[in-house]
Amino acid sequence: MARKPKTVTRRKFVAQTTGAVVSLGAAAAVNVASNSYSSLLNHYLGGRPTTVIHAEGSENWDSTYYKAAYRGRNQAKEAATKIVAQVVEEGAVLLKNDNGALPLAAGTTISLLGRYAADPVYGGAGSGTVDASDCVNLYQGIANAGLTINDTAFKFISSYASYPKAAITMDDPSTAAYYIGEIPWADYSSDAQSSIAGTTAVIVLGRGGGEGGDLSRDLKGDVDSGVSSAFTENSETTNYVAGQHELELTAEEKGLIAAAKSACSKVIVLINASTTMELGPLMSGEYEVDAILHIGSLGAAGSNGVGQLLVGAMSPSGKTTDIWAADFTADPTFDNFGGKQYTDVSGFYDSNPNGFKADGTAYFVEYKEGIYYGYRYYETAAVEAAAGDYPGFDYDSAVVFPFGYGLSYTTFAETLDSVEVSGDDVKVSVTVTNSGSVAGKQVVEVYYAAPYVKGGTAKSAVVLGGFAKTSELAAGASEAVEVTFPVRSMASWDSDKSGFVLDSGDYEISLRTDSHTVVDSKSLTISGQTYTTDEVTGTTLSNQFDDCTQYMENNCTAFSRDDFKGTFPDAARDRDSADCGITIAPYEYEQDTTVAMPTTGANNGLSLIDLRGVDYDDELWDSLLDQINVSEMTAVINDAAYNTAEVASISKPATSDPDGPAGFTSLTGSTGNCSYCSEYLMAQTWNADLIEQVGQAVGEEALASGYSGWYAPACDTHRSPFAGRNFEYFSEDPVLGGTICAAEIQGAASRGCYAYVKHFALNDQESYRIQHVMT
Question: Alpha helix locations (H) across 213-301?
Answer without folding.
Answer: 251-263
